[in-house]
Amino acid sequence: MLRGRINSKSSERDSGGQHAFLVLSLPFFLLISKESAMVALMTPSSRQLRTALALIAVRKSQWSFEKLAQELRVDDSLVKSCWRTLLENAWRLYPYRARSKAGHWQPDPSVKAMIALAAYRVRPDQTGDIARQYGVSLQDVEHWRRILVRRADRLF
Length: 156
Fold this sequence. Notes:
This protein is mainly α. It has 8 helices and 2 strands, in the order E-E-H-H-H-H-H-H-H-H. The chain has a two-stranded antiparallel ribbon with strand order 1-2.
């Protein structure tokens, strides 16, 4: 349980002579679903919120923007703009290299982003299928996916 003073002035006391305290109960606040709590804790302009909305929109591609917005209690135009920003700018997360450190060929950053987004959408056991489809190694696909998840907030 957290306690915080309501009255910040040291001389203020309530009628009983005792300092007034505000008591916050964390379990009460955490009864909200994970997505709703995440959205409730952040402001609409927050980088983390925009990143989370974009990644959820990519992951839940079978859901409409309206359904996602309704579930997360945000405006559907915010979900659309975050998703669009991620798709249009994800290539910026990847440096251009003609060869990897191991010496094998590397695709352009836009291709790396496309592969990472495709790998993010599928289940982890299907990542090998994505690697075979694009002709790259499984390790590269997993690395690019990790970069997408860890650095996506830089785009917002």
